[in-house]
Amino acid sequence: MGPSTSDPYCECRVLDGAQKGPEIKTKVISKTLQPTWDEKFALESDAVGRILEFEVWDHDMWPKKPDFLGKARLQLTSERLPHEETVERTLTLESDRKGIKAQGTLTVRLGGVRPGDQVKLPAGAAG
């Protein structure tokens, strides 16, 4: 039997204080541990200066629920990027769920606003 694979997808949302904004979801990529989504999404202009949260999940067919693989948060600055310029950031996936150890990274490419640094999850969040 070969190495296990996942059917990963990624959800992204803008964090607004304690609330989470609407989520954007990528397509599922079947049977891989190294997905490349290469999808473009537009965020509302009020995302400037806020935190983007990315959650990576392993899709499972109903009635099973998807498996959490990890999350990462990225602070956006208020600095605008020149037209058509993009910046890449590689984020380390973390877990805030008890009994789940996240592994891997997520690389995102942003345009319009310059990304800041990765925001670490609070220490002890997994309990």
Main attributes of the structure:
single chain, 127 residues, mainly beta, two-stranded antiparallel sheet, 8 strands
Question: How do the strands and helices of this protein lay out in sequence?
Answer:
Layout: E1 8-16, E2 19-20, E3 24-25, E4 51-58, E5 67-80, E6 86-92, E7 105-111, E8 113-119
Antiparallel strand pairs: 1-2, 1-3, 1-4, 4-5, 5-8, 6-7
Model regions low in confidence, pLDDT < 50 over at least 5 residues = none
Strand tally: 8
Query: Which whole number gives the mean pLDDT?
Result: 89
Largest sheet: 6 strands, antiparallel
Backbone structural class: mainly beta
The rounded Rg comes to: 15 Å
The count of helical stretches stands at: 0
Task: Name the helicity range.
Answer: under 10%
Protein name: C2 domain-containing protein
Pfam family, one: C2
InterPro entries: C2_dom, C2_domain_sf, Tricalbin_domain
